[in-house]
Amino acid sequence: MAERRSPAAAYAGRFEAASRGEALRLAELPFLTQIDVRVDPSSPAAGDIGDALGVPLPVEPGTAVRAGSGADEVTVAWLGPDEWLVVAPEGHRLELLRKGLGDRHGSIVDVSAQRTTLLVAGPRARDLLAHGCALDLHPSVFGPGACAQTTLARAQVVLIPREDGFLVLVRSSFAAYLAEWLLDAAAEYVA
Amino acid sequence: MLLIPCPWCGPREEAEFHYGGQAHVAYPEDPAALSDEEWARYLFFRDNPKGVFAERWSHSAGCRRWFNALRDTATNQIHGVYRVGEPRPVAS
């Protein structure tokens, strides 16, 4: 197998150093499987894809669902009225979704290489993101079960809040920029 | 900075959006039959009102959907947004 390097691999050491205090935990979650699903949400195909995922596609704008555990865990985030992003551990089987769609109108595309995932966790995670994000990130309006596509420090990201912190999905080509920005913004929270 | 209420995502800052000009400019039914002047009028001439203006916006950094908004060009107040295909609401 060819050698693989995740987009923010060079920042692993500095992320670890910034995570030594109580306030923050920064890490890259490399090589997650990401699948872009486009289908009419009212069609039978959408239901079959939901069955293949083990959880129905969320139809409410700005919501995400998480199901399964271990290697079968999936997070399905709403990206648009007919578009979803499935985030799963490496090795998730795309063919199951393809089989769910069959030859009906829609598309299922592996976009794992498009973005990498940064984990921003800890008690000051929300304060850190608020340095560069205009959204209200308070858990009462943006807790687990929500998701948003927005800009963080002017870079386009998908934000998925979870119990264990925020997933920040950023384009591979912006990963180094965003990692530098996060580390710089985190300076005041790192002992 | 405007706060624009995307009909899908809710209020977001202006920097997430892309402006698309006047809404409801119908494509000519038979473009080949138009004179050069009529074609130029379709391509380049747009209303420029002082007041409520129906215009297209795209939530390019969010859900990437096009929608229409009624914006007052004098005050920047947004009187309403509506999805593509929905009728233009009456400005309040």
Q: How many domain units of chain B?
A: 1
Shape verdict of chain A? globular
- What is the name of the CATH superfamily of the largest domain in chain A? Probable tRNA modification gtpase trme, domain 1
Determine the strand fraction of chain B and express it as a percent band: 35-45%
For the record, give the distance between the C-alpha atoms at the N and C termini of chain B, rounded to a whole number.
22 Å
* Class inferred from helices and paired strands of chain B: mainly beta
Average pLDDT confidence of chain A is 95
Query: Helicity level of chain B, as a percent range?
Result: under 10%
The number of distinct helices of chain B, counting runs of at least 4 residues, comes to: 1
Unreliable stretches of chain A (pLDDT < 50, length at least 5) are none
Radius of gyration of chain A: 17 Å
What can be said about the biggest beta sheet of chain A? 5 strands, antiparallel
**Order of strands, widest sheet of chain B:** 3-4-5-6
Task: Report the top-level CATH class of the largest domain in chain A.
Answer: Alpha Beta
Whole-number mean pLDDT of chain B: 95
Q: What's the CATH class label of chain B?
A: Alpha Beta
Adjacency order of strands in the biggest sheet of chain A: 1-7-10-9-8
Report the order of strands and helices of chain B.
EEEHEEE
Protein name (chain A): Sarcosine oxidase subunit gamma
Keywords (chain A): Oxidoreductase
EC number (chain A): 1.5.3.1
Organism (chain A): Nonomuraea roseoviolacea subsp. carminata
